[in-house]
C-alpha cells in the first residue's frame, strides 16, 4: 500500500524513473520526479513502492556530482588566472588584492522543492542568487516587478513542462502541444523587453520536453529540450552558474557546458554567450577597523 511521501515507480513505464507521491485523490496520485523535472499523475494500481533510486537515476546523480566538481575546478582555474594577471603591485602579504563580482542570478521555479535544491547549489558555488517559487503561468508578470529591482545578469525560468498526451494537434511545432512552454515563452519575451542585449542579460529557460525552438526564438540564450527528453532538476542551475563564473572577457564554451549537464545535448542547447564574471581593484576593506579622519 502506497501513501503520501513514498518513493515509487510506474509499472507501465518499466520503473524507469523514481517519483515521490505528492498528493492522492481517490485512486489517483500526483507524483514528482526525484531527480528529473517531471510532474505526472498515475493510478495507485500502477505504482510500486521502492526504497532507492532506479539504476538510470543513480547514473544521473553521479553525473550531477561530476558536473558540480567541474564547476569547482573551473572556479579554482579562474582564481589562478586572476592571480597570474593581476600585477605584483596589487599583492598584499602574498595574497592578490582584488575582489570578485560573479554574475547575479534571478531564478524563478515552478517547483518549490527543486528551487530549494537549486538555491543550495548556488550557495555552495558562491553564486549570488535570488530565488522565487512562482507558478509557470505567473512568471511573466513576476518579471515585470523583479527585473527592475534585482537587475540580474542571468535569469533562470524553469519548473515543469511536457508534451501533452491529449494534445489538440500532433504537431510538435505548436505551443498548444506543451503544458507550460507557452508560459516560458511569455516570460522570456517580458525579460527581452526589459533587456534586449543577449550578453547583458543571459536567459536560461525551460523544463522537461519544453519547446526548444520557440524558447530560443523568444530570446533565450539556453533552453530545453532539443530532443523533447526529460532534463535533470539541476541542469538549468549548472548553466546559470557557468555563466556567472565565466569572465566577461570570454564567451561561454557551449560544447563544454552542454557536455557537462546531466541531460547533454538532447536535453539542453543554446547560443554563443558572453560570461558575466568580473574582478575589481583594490580589494574591499573591512570598514569596522578602518580609521578615518572626518573631512566634514
TrEMBL record:
It comes from the Bacteria. Keywords: Coiled coil, Hydrolase, Protease. Pfam families: Peptidase_U57. InterPro entries: Peptidase_U57. Residues 61-88 form a coiled coil. GO terms for molecular function: peptidase activity. GO terms for biological process: proteolysis. This is Sporulation-specific protease YabG. It comes from Paenibacillus apis.
